[in-house]
Amino acid sequence: MDKDFLPLVSAVALNALFGNEPKFSHHLIDALGSAEAVFALSEKERRDLFGPYNGLADRIGPAALDAAADELERLSGRGYQFLDIFDDGYPAALRECPDAPLLLYVRSATPARELFGKRPAVAVVGTRDQSLYGRECCQRILRALSEAPSKPLIVSGMAIGVDVTAHAAALDGGLPTVGVSPVGIDEVYPRRHTAFAQRLCGTPGCALVTDYPPGTAPAPFTFLRRNRIIAGLAGATVLVESRIKGGGMITARLAAGYGRDVFAVPGRLDDVRSQGCNLLIREQLAAPVTEPEILPAALGLGRIGRRRAADLQTAVRERFGAALPPEETDRLARLAELVRATRGICFDELCRAADLPYAEVARGAGLLEEEGFIRIDVLQRCTINAKNA
């Protein structure tokens, strides 16, 4: 075996053997000096190290190293990349964590060694059961971060809800983003995000990463390790929405345990999706995000030039005034303001609130959506576009 590849092959082998307990691999390496030294032990030395009745001694041997070399060659041929903890390109913030994974599998159009270290990393996480309020807050936060003088790397977990909203908003805002997967590098979880993962991996500066080898299926412990990597990669974590128990809460508490900054978006007292955020703020583990536009400064990314969008009704009148009669422009401005005032309002509710027939509301809402003032989902619920919130 080529000596130049032996450190990486040894890291792949150790990760396959003891990935569930990365601290054990660290102890072995500390005791023996390197990952290669672990596999250079003779059978007697392995028995002496682990004891005569410990099955671990049989697992550390030439067969494990050969299997790792085969995996490295096979996955490299498919375009996957690797970062071991000894590589200069391994994220420095993650290396500081006592339970840092020995190896990261990477899918990216960018060389893995160029993904980390060029900019500060911010994790944006939250519940899968995302509300319209949570989605709007997440989009506003990402828009503010995209306007910061120092552009961050956005880290999240590729999950349904807040996570994928953060990834998508980052891409739309021109920010690089890294998704941390809870399954093997050859899969995407959840599978409904396969097309999005391809878009993410094909965008320069972005990546899908995991410490799981091919064939690893989702299980409770895989999500916990995924959350540890998210918290470890980022210098700060923003929790957008979360119940008292949930992956976002776990990530935020792990980040606090690593000594990283934590922020949380406060919500209504009676909304279970905000109870986790409110609890972290009450426990003083997280600083409240009361205005997304000042978050970049709090993160040390610099101040952005704006504080709030221009008056919505004025913006609507300026856009449509030259093309539509004054009375129709006024109706559009009123509809836009009703949407901003009542997040998630549906067409029937707009009809009652504006005292307009359904056809006029549908046409007006369509025009507002076409020009980017509002968003309409498949249930005809209307929300204000984040840039106009």
User: What is the β-strand count?
Assistant: 12
Largest beta sheet, briefly?
Answer: 9 strands, mixed
Q: Would you tell me which CATH topology of the largest domain applies? A: Rossmann fold
CATH architecture assignment name of the largest domain: 3-Layer(aba) Sandwich
Dominant shape: elongated
Q: How would you characterize this protein structure?
A:
- Strand 5, helix 10 (194-201) and strand 6 form a beta-alpha-beta unit.
- Helix content is 46%, strand content 12%.
- It has helices at residues 6-18, 22-32, 35-39, 43-50, 56-59, 62-77, 92-95, 132-146, 162-172, 194-201, 220-233, 247-257, 275-282, 295-298, 312-320, 326-341, 347-354, 358-370; strands spanning 81-84, 103-107, 121-125, 153-156, 177-180, 207-210, 236-239, 261-264, 287-288, 345-346, 374-376, 381-384.
- The longest helix has 16 residues, at 62-77.
- Helix 1 crosses helix 6 and helix 17 packs across helix 18 (358-370).
- It folds into 3 domains: 6-77; 113-298, 3-Layer(aba) Sandwich (Rossmann fold), CATH 3.40.50; 312-388, Arc Repressor Mutant, subunit A, CATH 1.10.10.
- The chain has a 9-stranded mixed sheet, with helices on both faces. The chain has a 3-stranded antiparallel sheet with strand order 10-12-11.
- The mean pLDDT is 91.
